[in-house]
Amino acid sequence: MISIIVAISDNNAIGKEGQLLCHLPADMKHFKDLTIGHTVIMGRKTFESLPKGALPNRKNIVLTTKESTEYTNCIVCGSIQQALEICKEDESVFIIGGAHVYAETIDRVERMYITHVHHVFDEADAFFPIVDFNRWTEIERQKFPADEKNLYPYTFVTYLRK
């Protein structure tokens, strides 16, 4: 199963200057709970934005045009096709960003785990591709208000390709 996992604001934004738009501890826990023990595929910029490098307890695949680059505890690939070939036997594969990787894989994934962050971030410079939700079935939804740890209301939604 190949899935996208992403947090998207109300204006489809996902990042600013190589970083997430906001800190939502509940979303970070959700991300970890879903991806732990599985494969994650990400672009070079997403990898370089990780504060501690490779995500622990996951197979980390980094996409870059500079295939001679080495990242500790990661597999480096020059294309999404090469990455998918490497993990074709893996039970669950998660595409975790960034914008270019999402755009390149949106038509290949079977499932999307989207955290809808109910806020508009005008300063954003990275956006998720436009999704035709008529091609997806919503299979799960959990809505949460803002609280002392999560500054914005958010909704976890799981979509399955029709």
How do you describe this structure in short?
19% of the residues lie in helices and 33% in strands. The protein is an alpha/beta fold.
- What's the number of structural domains? 1
Distance between the termini: 14 Å
CATH superfamily: Dihydrofolate Reductase, subunit A
Q: What is the CATH level 1 assignment?
A: Alpha Beta
Do you know the CATH topology? Dihydrofolate Reductase, subunit A
Beta-strand content:
25-35%
* Unreliable sequence segments: none
Per CATH, the architecture is: 3-Layer(aba) Sandwich
For this entry, what is the oligomeric state of its chains?
single chain
Please count the helical segments: 4
Strand order of the largest sheet: 5-4-3-6-1-7-10-9
Mean residue pLDDT: 95
How large, in whole angstroms, is the Cα Rg? 15 Å
Give the overall shape, derived from the CA principal axes: globular
- Written as H for each helix and E for each strand, in order along the chain, the element string is EEHEHEEHEHEEEE
Helical residue percent?
10-25%
Structural class: alpha/beta
Number of beta strands: 10
Major beta sheet summary: 8 strands, mixed
Give descriptors for this structure.
4 helices, alpha/beta, two-stranded antiparallel sheet, eight-stranded mixed sheet, Dihydrofolate Reductase, subunit A, 33% strand
What do these coordinates show?
With 162 residues, this protein is an alpha/beta fold. The chain has one domain: Dihydrofolate Reductase, subunit A, CATH 3.40.430. The protein is 19% helix and 33% strand. It has four helices and ten strands; from the N terminus they run ββαβαββαβαββββ. It has helices at 25-35, 44-49, 80-86, 99-105; strands at 2-9, 13-15, 39-43, 59-63, 74-77, 93-95, 111-117, 126-127, 136-144, 154-161. It has an eight-stranded mixed beta sheet. β3 (39-43), α2 (44-49) and β4 (59-63) form a beta-alpha-beta unit. The radius of gyration is 15 Å and the shape is globular. The relative contact order is 0.27. The mean pLDDT is 95.
